[in-house]
Amino acid sequence: MRGLGKYLLWVYTAMAMVFLLIPIVYTIIFSFNDARRTNIVWRGFTIDNWLDVCNAQDVCSSFANSILVAGVSTVLATAMGTAIAIALVRYRFRFRNATTLLLFLPMATPEVVLGAGLAAQFLQLGVQKGLSTIIIAHTMFCISFVVVTVRARVAVLDPALEEAGRDLYGSPSQVFWRVTFPLLIPGITAAALLSFALSFDDFIITNFNAGPAMTFPRFVYTAAARGIPAEANVIASGVFFAAIALVLIAQVSGAIKRKRLALAG
Amino acid sequence: MAFGAFQSAAPAGTGAPVTQVQKKSPVALWLLLPGILYLILFFVTPLFSLVLTSFQSPVPGGFLGEFQTAFRWENYVDVVSTYFSHIGRSFVYATLATIFALLLGYPIAYVIGVKLRAYPLLQALALVLLIAPFFISFLLRTLAWKQIFSDEGFVVGALKTLQLIPSDAYLTGTPFSVVFGLTYMFLPFMALPIYTTLERLDLRYVEAGGDLYANPFTVFRTVTFPLSIPGVISGTLLTFIPATGDYINASRDFLGSTDTAMMGNVIEANFLVLQNFPAAAALSLILMMSILILVSAYVRRSGTDDLL
Fold first, then answer.
1. Mean pLDDT per 10-residue run, chain A (265 residues)?
2. A-contacting residues of B 28-47, CB under 8 Å?
3. Total number of domains constituting chain B
4. For the ranges B62-71, B89-98, B192-201, which has the lowest average pLDDT?
5. Is A79:A200 a contact under the CB 8 Å cutoff?
6. What CA–CA distances, in Å, run from B3 to A157, A234, A250, B31, B307?
């Protein structure tokens, strides 16, 4: 009986994992579909979609817009979020509780509300919506996620290392850029990657603040009514493979580093 | 809170927190200022804009989408009576999706975090699979389900052949497909935080339970599960909050129909199509306040600092 229970747990988990992966596999397979206009029924294998991705109207331009928006918002959010994370761990200041609440609330607010709120503000101020308003919106919701990620990294940073830097007559800025910052790089990288991913795949907040500007998710949403071109699947699958490659490289290099450290120690 | 999970998913080792000496310095102000100002400008003031907008009244004889500052609190009464069923649906669908995601996500988190500890390579691979959905457009993944469940698709065909559903039945555009889509979309958000707490679980407690002749179920109920509650709380919040406001799954072009429309759908329609900004704003605030009330009742035990 007990053995059977264990067996059940594994089967159940395997099935849940398969459930998780079915749409991914589906999306990738249909990027090779010889679809004419709508990519719904399987009509045969082709790699043409991969060869001329930009064939379908707006696919490539919306993808480029998404990359631009994600890149700029990531830089802005990572810079501001990292500074806040350092301040939260290292300094005592008034309004600490108000600050943590202000950082927590955007994460606990549904995207529709964030999107509609900003859109209402832009409307009242008479701001024209476009790529810049999308960037403003994305930077806003990425900051909190950056703070959470980097803060975890600052919290495990040994202050003795910085003390050593000061003992060796390093100026505060030298200590920061030569000691603190390099030690925070893994955390900052993780935060930047998360921001990029959140911004790149965001649809709801974007849709409220885009005006005529197209991002890749908006393209997919509008195309959904009349049928998605297979080229959209190509872009999504390409991004997927690139991201998985990045994760694997990070995992492997991390494992090698740990092994070296273990050997050295 | 989402991040705990990503953090430990990253290979870079996270050690125990080091005691940090906190000092008072004007540097803190300069570190905080840009980000905090940014959030005040683009998160806090938009909420006030939303409040202002929600009380606006139409300009008499004005164009579509023309409103003036007023204190028309009846806007709230109007939206609640017009969209009562949408509001109800949002919370019912989100609750169901949260329960299903927990039932699916907990075992995944348990197997990866506890059972696979002995096999680091398999554990790393399983984690990559668990976060893989984040790397591919969620809209395309939802559309994939739509096509799998479509009337010509093999799922409907198989169910009809097995006579599990009547021959005129359909799956897309039903509450079933919407809750299914929501469960699918937020499953990783549920599983990752639970994984993070279970991965740090000290197995000696579990062994102690076994040594005291508790059967595996009792050990799970009295030891493992209580220790994983912080992860369960984060996971359920990360599922419930976005699921309540979601309008992709319930949208007509995805897994829903007009009969499954949720609050997000009517907020979008009022704001972007009908240009009835006050109604959209009032609905947004109702959504936000109900979530805040529900969530604070749910996490009374832990402060915001813990959640972050």
1. 72 91 94 82 86 84 96 98 93 89 92 96 94 97 95 86 89 88 90 94 96 94 87 94 88 78 71
2. 28-32, 34-36, 38-40, 42-47
3. 2
4. B62-71
5. no
6. 18, 29, 18, 21, 10
The answer on A180 and A127 residing in a single domain is yes
In this complex, the residue of A16, A117, A240 whose CB is nearest that of residue B104 is A16
**For position B17, what pLDDT does the model report?**
61
Let me know whether B169 and B50 are in one domain: no
Prediction ipTM score = 0.90
- Residues A135, A248, single domain; the answer is no
B26–chain A Cβ distance below 8 A for any pair: no
Q: What is the CATH number of the domain that holds A147?
A: 1.10.3720.10
Give the nearest partner residue to A99 out of B11, B32, B267, using CB atoms: B32
CB crowding B226-256: b at 16 or more within 10 Å, else e: ebbebbbbbbbbbbbbbbbbbbbbbbbbbbb
pTM: 0.89
Query: Do B160 and B238 fall into the same domain?
Result: yes
Give me the domain span that covers residue B287. Answer: 45-82+276-308
Asked whether the predicted pLDDT for residue B215 surpasses 90, the reply is no
- The verdict on B282 and B254 lying in the same domain is no
Domain count, chain A: 2
Does position B157 have pLDDT exceeding 70, yes or no?
A: yes
| Residue A9, domain extent | 1-56+232-265
A247 Cβ under 8 Å from any chain B Cβ? yes
| A254 to B12: CB separation less than 8 angstroms, yes or no | yes
Q: Determine the straight-line distance between the first and last CA of chain B, rounded to whole angstroms.
A: 5
